[in-house]
């Protein structure tokens, strides 16, 4: 598990646009933090910088006290879950979930044990020999989660993982993700533009606008004491 600390982190894209500006954020070991804000406010860019998929153009990123600004993604011990499930269509559920372990050259018996454990946790045992095309959207999303948890990474980063699901399934999966996170206790940063998701899922919520963090707090703090009209309006509390 990991502590993740951003100090004055900014991202300027080569075209000159400043997508993320001076973000200060300390995420505790085991914490479930939500990044929320309207489309284009810099949520994905922030997540991608933590993952190492985008480089940081100013500031410092630490994972467990180590500066990781220049560390490649594969050395960060972080698992990313995207909204497009990015499953391999030609591989079975079992093979999809085993994939990161095979890359890490884990021995066969261990791979089997870990995949089966993850399948149990995610209620996928009966689907292990199917291919993704024969699964529902919710089942596919669970396989994507399974692929993230088999490695027991230090942290999970999730970018709108439920946005491809219909409303009913989204609510179900939301509960499952919250339960999974509590059970594993893995530090999680979860991006969404959905206010309800933001206010029900995590320990703390980071509200962003135009690349700038507006407020960080528990859902109760944001409801009770929104720092400005934007936060009040965005989370839907009376200003
Ligand atoms: P969000 O995930 O909150 O919707 P993003 O982090 O994807 O927002 O984008 C933040 C801002 O950065 C947006 O204005 C977007 O257009 C811009 N942006 C994202 N990726 C690039 C890129 N590769 N080059 C230039 N601008 C980008
Ligand atoms: Mg995004």
TrEMBL record:
This is Sn-glycerol-3-phosphate ABC transporter ATP-binding protein UgpC. It comes from the Bacteria. Residues 4-235 form the ABC transporter domain. Keywords: ATP-binding, Cell membrane, Membrane, Nucleotide-binding, Translocase, Transport. It comes from Streptomyces beihaiensis. The keyword Cell membrane applies. One of its GO terms (molecular function) is ATP binding. The gene is ugpC.
């Amino acid at each position: 598990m990991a502590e993740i600390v951003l100090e004055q982190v900014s991202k300027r894209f080569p075209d000159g646009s400043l997508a993320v500006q001076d973000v200060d954020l300390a995420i505790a070991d085991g914490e479930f933090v939500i990044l929320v804000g309207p489309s284009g406010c810099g949520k994905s860019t922030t997540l991608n910088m933590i993952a190492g998929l985008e480089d940081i153009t100013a500031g410092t990123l630490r994972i467990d006290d180590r500066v990781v600004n220049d560390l490649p993604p594969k050395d960060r011990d972080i698992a990313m879950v995207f909204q497009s499930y990015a499953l391999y269509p030609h591989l079975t559920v079992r093979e999809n979930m085993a994939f990161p372990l095979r890359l890490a050259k884990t021995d066969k018996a261990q791979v089997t044990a870990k995949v089966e454990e993850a399948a149990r946790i995610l209620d996928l045992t009966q689907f292990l020999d199917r291919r993704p095309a024969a699964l529902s959207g919710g089942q596919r999303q669970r396989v994507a989660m399974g692929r993230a948890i088999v490695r027991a990474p230090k942290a999970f980063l999730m970018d709108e993982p439920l946005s491809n699901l219909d409303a009913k399934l989204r609510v179900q999966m939301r509960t499952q993700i919250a339960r999974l996170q509590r059970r594993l206790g893995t530090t999680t940063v979860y991006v969404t533009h959905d206010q309800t998701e933001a206010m029900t899922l995590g320990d703390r919520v980071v509200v962003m606008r135009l690349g700038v963090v507006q407020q960080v707090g528990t859902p109760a703090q944001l409801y009770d004491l929104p720092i400005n009209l934007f936060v009040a309006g965005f989370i839907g509390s009376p200003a």
